[in-house]
Specification:
Shape: globular
Number of domains: 2
Distance between the termini: 93 Å
Strand order of the largest sheet: 3-4-6-7-8-9
Largest sheet: 6 strands, antiparallel
Structural class: alpha+beta
Radius of gyration: 22 Å
Strand content: 15-25%
Number of strands: 16
Length: 326
């Protein structure tokens, strides 16, 4: 009897020790520095390709997203312990030091059957270090087991089947670190683009995302999402054509076409959503805009970086809007 009890105790002890040895990485703090391997940042737990987010981070979505050759994106923010995003109006919140922002780009192999898997291409990282945002890009290996820091940019062949059963082939362009700075550059300073509070203020499965972030103390300095404006989803046909087009311009073009942006000296356009039509110069530049979005020509088409093919739906929307201005 005593031997049986001892044997059971040994099994329990071994099991507990084994559990401790295999404790999930979600208990580890996210590393706010650029390591060689993406796995070293502790953003994800378990198999890296599952993209299971650590409990030290949270996923967010945008009401209107940037077009990147039809790639899907997972967006993640990791805040240091005992810190929050601070409300600072409808735009970007105030991010604490050592915030990590990650965006992973992938393609489902067949949009009609997600069980067939996906091809993960890259994970772009922004880290706030000493008050400034630094950029880095992790390229995923073919085995989908790891992503390696690569600042030089590269090309990756991608094939996927869309919802209509059409096979698509592209050569996906992973940006260099210089390319990243081009788009994230405002007055020669790197800055995030997407996670403005107005872009987070919409409902997902019946729950307002921004309010949920407020309730969970990820965003402080504000008590209700009603205190923030809400960006229009460019795909929402219930919204006006002008609002949809201006929303598309804002997320896809305004990071360069605003005062202090990369194209400030080359163009008179100011495509921020809040800029009036009169001050935006969209009307004056409507023919140039139409020409640059009508087909994809490397080095000429807009957006200048981040795409290698024409966004058919987006171009159709903007063309329809521009025709109303004639």
């Amino acid at each position: 009897m005593r031997k049986a009890i001892l044997f059971i105790l040994l099994i329990i002890t071994f099991s507990c020790a084994n559990d401790d040895a295999m404790s999930p990485a979600e208990d580890l703090d996210v590393v706010a520095e650029f390591k060689v391997n993406l796995s070293e940042l502790n953003l994800f737990i378990g198999n890296l390709s599952d993209l299971n987010i650590s409990s030290k981070a949270f996923e967010y979505k945008l009401n209107t997203g940037l077009f990147t050759d039809y790639a899907h994106k997972q967006r993640v923010i990791a805040l240091p312990n005992n810190t929050t995003l601070e409300y600072d109006g409808n735009g970007l919140p105030i991010f604490p030091e050592n915030t990590v922002i990650a965006k992973t780009f992938y393609y489902n192999l067949d949009e009609r059957d997600l069980s067939l898997g996906r091809q993960i291409i890259e994970t772009r990282i922004l880290i706030k270090i000493n008050g400034a945002w630094e950029t880095g890009d992790y390229k995923w290996n073919e085995a989908q087991t790891e992503a390696i820091l690569d600042l030089n940019g590269s090309e990756v062949p991608v094939t996927w089947i869309n919802e209509n059963g059409d096979t698509n082939n592209i050569t996906y362009a992973i940006p260099s670190n210089d390319d990243c700075f081009t788009c994230h550059n405002i007055n020669d300073t790197s800055t995030p683009i997407g996670p403005k509070l107005r872009n987070l203020n919409f409902s997902i499965n019946g729950t307002n995302q921004l309010q949920d972030l407020i309730n969970n103390q990820y965003v402080t300095g504000i008590s209700s999402n009603n205190e923030v404006s809400s960006m229009v989803n460019w795909e929402d046909t219930n919204a006006s054509l002008e609002d949809r087009a201006r929303s598309y311009f804002d997320i896809n073009c305004a990071h360069c076409h605003i005062p202090g942006g990369f194209c400030d000296q080359e163009s008179t356009l100011d495509l921020a959503y809040e800029t009036s039509l009169e001050d935006s110069n969209i009307y004056q530049r409507r023919f140039s805009i139409s020409t640059r979005i009508s087909e994809y020509i490397s080095g000429f088409s807009m957006p200048y970086i981040g795409t290698t093919i024409k966004h058919r739906e987006g171009a159709d929307l903007l063309e329809a809007y521009l025709q109303t201005l004639e």
